[in-house]
Amino acid sequence: MQTLDRDEVRLVTSASPARVHALIADVTRMPEFSPEVVWCRWLDGATGPAVGARFAARNKFRRGPSAVNKPVITGLQAGRLVSWSRTEPFGGTVEWTYEFLPHADGTEVVVAPVSATTVHVVSSGGMAGWQIALIAIGAALLAATAAVVLDRARAARRAASATTA
Predict the structure, then answer these.
(1) Total-model pTM
(2) CA–CA separation, 24 vs 37, rounded Å?
(3) I need a surface site. Which of 56, 64, 108, 114 has the fewest CB within 10 A?
(4) What number does CATH give the domain 2-164?
(5) Domain ranges in the chain?
(6) 46 pLDDT band (50/70/90 cuts)?
(7) What percent of the chain has pLDDT over 70?
(8) Which residue, among 27, 94, 80, has the nearest Cα to 55 in the 3D structure?
């Protein structure tokens, strides 16, 4: 058995902080990035991230049934940070914080899940939360990097068209 009350994962991408923030803060896109999230939608009339906005997400675990959770956005700074809090059945409340820091190579993404209480984790063969977060962030960073490459290719194509016209 392991205890967990805080973890942190850091990754660097060539995409800008604003681009990575936009991908992560739009929680409806999480199923594209996480193998655990089946769907995600805004609740109570919310149409995007804002402090106090709630969303519902269905998570399917490797073993066992799927579960719906209803986090609330607790922190939001454009291009800099997004965080949400969710209460886990039998696990207490977990605050997920994503920070997007300027880096010489683009953006350093810091993911830091923090539990309000120490959680005792008994492995059941599934992945730990930090592993899921790492996979989700890796996929989001891949999408952001692909978008940067596409933007550069489009800009080069426009420049080439402008010089031949």
Answers:
(1) 0.69
(2) 13
(3) 64
(4) 3.30.530.20
(5) 2-164
(6) very high
(7) 68
(8) 27
